[in-house]
Amino acid sequence: MAIVRRSVKREAVLSLLRSVDCHPTAEWVHGQLKERFPDLSLGTVYRNLRQLEAEGLIVALGAVDGQERFDGDISDHAHFVCERCGAVTDVELKGDDGLAARVERELGARVARRDVKLRGICKSCINKDMRA
Amino acid sequence: MAIVRRSVKREAVLSLLRSVDCHPTAEWVHGQLKERFPDLSLGTVYRNLRQLEAEGLIVALGAVDGQERFDGDISDHAHFVCERCGAVTDVELKGDDGLAARVERELGARVARRDVKLRGICKSCINKDMRA
DNA sequence: CCCCTAACAGGAATTATTCTTATTTAAGGA
DNA sequence: TCCTTAAATAAGAATAATTCCTGTTAGGGG
């Protein structure tokens, strides 16, 4: 019988990601959990993030300014990325546009997930520009 | 008056990107152009790719397997990314779904571009799995 | 012919991420 | 409780894509 060990630290990474609405980097996660686990190493955070992603419990959103972002919300939704400050905001996606089905038909591929990102300048960066 | 110097190498990078339908990495571009410019350095390729992107003449698609991919086709279209072999395929996008407009309204942001990616397994990787 | 500036090669530096190794931990059985 | 075993870990080394730096070259305007 497979020994199923739950890692307390991995659970902590997962629930942290689920509890925030930002889209943290590995380093941010490490900083947050350092309080509760003073000996937490950055390598452990990376390893657990990768494992959680492999299990489909979290999603990697791609790098913003050279650092990977993670999302604990695995529901189908889009993201707005501010190219000025790097902030990532969730955006509701209404229904399926049939794109995945079309790609499966036209390319003979199997589509596992879609990833919709909008890039631009967020409200607060626009306001900063005004004041400048 | 601004001195506008055309860089032969930058032009070569741009027209190479425009002439292929794959979505190359900087290293691939460097390898291709090495024939014509034996002393071409990888740093120059990176610099020119960045500059072309800043000018809006090419698009950076985000990293696949740790390496940035570039696209010389700046028309609004989606991409299918094979998670097995890393191949990137263009997918036509039919019209605007109004998402960008909704985000501008709801978030007060300015949306510059949308980026739609589908991930999964491409046809040829599916076939490889069959044979295995 | 002389500046001025962009462009360049070559290589060093940076840095996010992964890998390695020795160690610790916890679960389950005896 | 003690032992076995495999996952989990910390710490730090290693990797590798990308950027930065320095000295040099070359073209165009004046």
Explain what this protein looks like in three dimensions.
- The structure is a homodimer of 132-residue chains.
- The longest helix of chain A has 13 residues, at 42-54.
- In chain A, a hairpin with a 2-residue loop joins strand 1 and strand 2 (67-71).
- Chain A has 2 domains: 1-73, Orthogonal Bundle (Arc Repressor Mutant, subunit A); 75-132, Ferric-uptake regulator, C-terminal dimerisarion domain (Dna Ligase, domain 1, 2-Layer Sandwich), CATH 3.30.1490.
- In chain A, helix 1 packs across helix 3 and helix 2 (26-33) packs across helix 3.
- Chain A is of the alpha+beta class and 132 residues long.
- Chain A is 39% helix and 26% strand.
- Chain A starts with 7 loop residues before the first helix and ends with a helix.
- Chain A binds a DNA duplex (30 and 30 nucleotides) through helix 3.
CATH superfamily of the largest domain in chain A: Winged helix-like DNA-binding domain superfamily/Winged helix DNA-binding domain
Supply the CATH class of the largest domain in chain A: Mainly Alpha
CATH topology of the largest domain in chain A: Arc Repressor Mutant, subunit A
Whole-number tally of structural domains of chain A: 2
Helix and strand run of chain A: HHHEEEEHEH
Q: Could you name the ranges of chain A where pLDDT drops below 50 across 5 or more consecutive residues? A: none
